Amino acid sequence: MGILTRLRHSRPVGLARYHLYRDVMLAWPRRCACNICGWRGRRFLTSGHHAFTLCPCCGSRIRHRLIAAALTRHPIATRVPLESGRVLHVSPEYCLSLVLRPRARNYVRADWATSDCDVRQDITRMPFRDGAFDVVIACDTLEHVADDRLAVQECRRVLAPGGITILTVPQSDEAYATYEDRTLISPEDRAATYGQHDHVRNYGADFANRVASEGFRVTCVDASSFDADYGAAHVLRPPVRAQDPWGWNDRRVYFAERA
Fold this sequence. Notes:
By secondary structure, the chain is α/β, with parallel strands linked by helices.
């Protein structure tokens, strides 16, 4: 490999290309904005199944911006004991940490797959005492867990009275019932059925009832919870709807209060 080829594929050149694209080519007109990091520009980036939904600065996706919007512009925010509370962030995303860490009294990051956290854990067997936290956040985690009901029960156990779990999951746009086939074992079969090789189910519109059955009062927040101009400016819906059979276009955030 020649010197010019190595240079073209080097990290400094890659970063320079990225910043040139983000800070120059995407800078104008400023049609959209991230309500987490404040980036503004012509459009967001494409990542995964949806075009123009990924913030090029903090990496937020629709689900993260919906949470940020709910915590500042929705009545549910008055019931989330976030200020000076004890917060457990499961499988923590950098973008959401920008929202949660400055407001929490104690902020704990927990994950089973990475050592870059405060605690290594299995969400179905969390190493915390009962009532240890005021808020638990788990975004797009339950679809990876074999026993999701046990995971929801654990979230309730570690919540103090009046605490809230904030949950998101990829959901079918059409199907009411959650679909799960335990005979699907291979990554290829799961990817073909659920849209991703490490998913074990595709949730339907019954997700709120599944959570409520474990002892929660559930409030659902989605793009329709905010005015259309705000939703468009911060891209709370995909600008281009994906046509995949598993859906995932209409993202929702579930605020589950310990009943």
